[in-house]
Amino acid sequence: MAILTIDQAGPMCSVQDGGRHGYQRFGVTPAGVMHPQAAALCWQLLARHNHPLIEVSAPGLALRCDEPISISFVWQGRVERDGIAVPNRAGRLSLAAGERFVLHPSPEQWGYVGIHADFCAAPLMGSYATHARSELKVFEPLSAGNALEIEPWTLDAEMTGLRGLEPDADPIRIVAGPQIERFSQAQIAQFLQTEWRIGHRSDRMAYQLEGEPLSLRGKHDIISDGITFGAIQITGSGQPYVLMADRQPTGGYPKIGCIIDADIGRFAALPPGSTVTFVWVDLNEAAAATRLETAKQQAAMRVDQPDLRSERLLGLNLIDGIIDGSYTD
Amino acid sequence: MNLLRFSAASLGDRALTLTFAEHIEPAITQHIRALAPAVANIEGVVETVPCYAALTVHFDPMTLAYDALMAELNTLNASIAAADVAPRQWRVPACYHPDIAEDIAEAATALGVSVDALAEAHTAATFEIAMYGFAPGWAYLSGTPAALNLPRRLTPRGPTPADALLIAGGQAMLAANPMPTGWYVIGRSAQPSFFLDRTPPVVFDVGDRLSFYAVEPSQWQSMYAAAKAGERVAERVR
Prior knowledge:
By secondary structure, chain A is α+β, with helices and mostly antiparallel strands. Chain A is built from 5 helices and 22 strands.
C-alpha cells in the first residue's frame, strides 16, 4: 500500500468517475465528471475507462506519493514535476517516491489527474463519484493535507507532448427543451442573440448565465419533470441556469433547451466572467457531433510537432504569467 | 381502457421526456408508474425517472436511436394498463410530538389548528408515492388533504432531521435524508426508508400507498432504533 498526499487543492477539487447512474428515480444525483471529453482523454491515457479520477478545479493541484507511481493528466495550465516544467495539455508521467507533481492555475475550468493505482476504498452504489451536497461520496472533497491509500499498478511508459483537446470557441450547440412552447419566437431569438456571461456563483450544480433576463408566458413553474446534464432552466426571474453534473434529478422550471453531449465539456470549461453564445441544432446534427468525438479523442492522443509545441508553451506561459500573480505556491 | 396519450420532447441528445398532462391526476401517475419499469428494460435505456405527469427516459443514443426508442415507447404505452400493477400498501408508525416533530407547533399555528388536529389530519390521509426527486430518498406524496395546505416558508429552514414528514404548498413529502428546505417538519417516520447498501436503496417504491399512525416519543425512539438495526417496523398490509 502507498500513500498519495494532496499538498494543495483549489475549491471543488474531488474524486469523480462517469457518475452514479441508475438511481435518479430514487432522488439520487449521478454527479461524476464535469468535463466528459477531458475525462475521456484521461481514461485513454490510463487505459482504463471510468477509473476514478481526481477532478482539478482551475486553481490547480499539488501532490506526491511515497512510492514510485505513474500518473496521467489532462490540464491546460503549466505542469511541473520536481520543479521542472513538462509539456502540458495531456500526458503520462512517472513520479519517483516523494517527487512533487504540480498543476499550476489553468485558464480553463476542470482538468483531470488519473492515478495508475487502485483506491483502497469500495465504491458507493457502484461509483466513486462525489456528490458533496447529498453526502453521497467515497472520499471527502479534496483539500491540502489529505492522504489517500492506494495500491499502485506497475509503472507505465511515459507519454509527453500530446496534442490534447483542441481549443474551440464556436457557439455551444443546443437542442430544443421540453418546454420550448412556453417561450415566444422573440424570447428564443433573444436567448440565441445574447452573449451570456458565466456568473461567479456557478458551481458543480449549475452555471448561472448573466445577461438581460427573458420574460416568460404564463406561470413560471411546471409540474416537476426529469432534468439532465446541460439542461437550460429559466427561473421565475427569467435568469437562465445551466444544470451541471451535481444537478437534482428533477426540476420545476421550464427548460428552453439542452446542450448537446459533445459540447458539455467545452461549456463546463468556461471560467466565471467569460462569455458564451448558443446555437440551435437538431438531433441528427447532435448525433453527427457525437460520432466526431471518437476522431477528436484519437487526434488528442497524437504527439505534436516540437516547433508547434514550443510556440504554444510560449503562449501559455504568457497567460500563466498573469494568473500566477494571485497564486501562492 | 382509454389510451393515455403523451407529447414527447427531447431533453438533450441523451434523454427525452414524455408529458402526459399539465395537471396532477392519480390515474396518470399510476399509468406512468406501470410504464416506467417496462421502459427501463428496453436495451439502450440507462434509467427512467417517473414523475407526477411525466416520464423522463435517459438513453444511450449510440445504442438506441431516438426514433427507434419512440417507436418502442408508443407500443409499450398502448399495451400497459395501470390496473396490471396492484399498489403495495403500508402502515407506518410516526411521531408528531413537538419534541420530535420540530416544526409542528409552528405549522399548526400558521394553519390555525391545534397540534393534535394537524397530526390527526395527516394520519387520516392515504398517501401515494408519486415520485422521488430533489434529494436521495425524498418521496413526493400525492393525496394530501386540503386541511394540510400551508404555503412554503419565505426563507428555507436548516437541514431536516432524517426520515422527516414534511408539508408545504399543498403537498406532502417523506424526506429520508437531511437537506435544507422551505417545507415544515410535522412528523418523523419510525421507518428509515433509504439504505445506501440495499438494492433498491428505498423501502417504499413509486406507486406504494402509505398511511401513518401516531406513536409516543419513547415508542418512536425504540422503533426507530430497531429499524435502524435492520428490523422493518412499517407494516405491509397489501
